[in-house]
From TrEMBL:
This is DUF2065 domain-containing protein. Pfam families: DUF2065. It comes from Bradyrhizobium sacchari. Keywords: Membrane, Transmembrane, Transmembrane helix. The chain crosses the membrane at residues 6-25, 45-64. InterPro entries: DUF2065.
Length: 68
């Protein structure tokens, strides 16, 4: 039997793949430009954006999962 947390993780991963796939399908040129821009961005800025995104994601999960 799978745990609820693991099922939620797989659902989140699936949503990530769907959104990424839709962005590539809808506008491959824009995604190519975004990747080039990310390659030119310094590591410390990418790291800060990544940490910020992770924190926002964890807060969103906490808000949605807390008992009412």
């Amino acid at each position: 039997m799978r745990s609820i947390a693991f099922a939620d993780f797989l659902i989140g991963l699936g949503i990530l793949f769907v959104l990424e796939g839709l962005m590539f399908a809808a506008s491959p040129n824009w995604m190519r430009k975004a990747m080039k821009s990310a390659m030119a961005t310094p590591d410390h800025i990418l790291r800060a954006v990544g940490i910020g995104s992770a924190v926002v994601g964890l807060i969103l999960i906490w808000v949605m999962r807390r008992p009412i």
